[in-house]
Amino acid sequence: MSEDIDIDTGALEKRMDGALNALKTEFASLRTGRASASMLDPVMVDAYGSSMPINQCATINVPEPRMVLVNVWDKSLVNAVDKAIRNSGLGINPQMDGTILRLPIPELNEERRRELAKVAGQYAENARIAVRNVRRDGMDQLKKAKADGMGEDDQKIWEDEIQSLTDDHIKRVDDALEAKQQEIMQV
Known about the structure:
Helices cover 55% and strands 16% of the residues. The chain is built from four helices and six strands, in the order H-E-E-E-E-H-E-E-H-H. Helix 1 (9-29) packs antiparallel against helix 3, helix 1 (9-29) packs parallel to helix 4 (152-185) and helix 3 (110-147) packs antiparallel against helix 4. The longest helix is centred in the last third of the chain and has 38 residues, at 110-147. It comes from Algicella marina. One of its GO terms (biological process) is cytoplasmic translational termination. Keywords: Cytoplasm, Protein biosynthesis.
C-alpha cells in the first residue's frame, strides 16, 4: 500500500525557493550607499484612488552613482510620489524640479550601516521562518501519509529528504545575508 503514497518534494522545494527569491527582492531594496532603481521597488504611491508601485506612475533612472531621477508621468501625481518617497523610510529627501524628482543618495554613516545590517538580518530571519513553515507543511503531509498506511522506514526516508531540503535553503539564506551585510558595511 505504501508504494502509492508519495510526498511532493518538488512543490516543497519550489515554495522554499520562493522564500529565497522574496529575500533577494527585499535585499535589493536596501540601500548600500550606491544609487539603484530597485531601492524604490517597495515604495507605493496613492494615485487614482488606489495604491500602486512607483514604477507604474514614473520612470526611474540612475544617471550617476549617488543620484536617482524619478520622472513622474502625470503632473498631478508629483506631490503624491514625493510624499510616498519621503514616508518610505529610505531616508531620502526628494528635490522637485517640475515633474522630475531628484533623489540624492547620501553617504551612509557607520550607525546607519549597522541599522541596515540589522534590517537585513530581520529579512533573513523572516525567510528562515518561511522555509521552516514549508518544512512543517511537509512533515504534516508525512503524518497524514503515515495515517494512510506509509511504513516507518519510508517515513524516515522522506523526513530526512525534507530536512535536507530545509538545511540547504537555510544555508542559502545565511550565505545571502552574509554577502549583503558585507556589502552594507563596505565603505
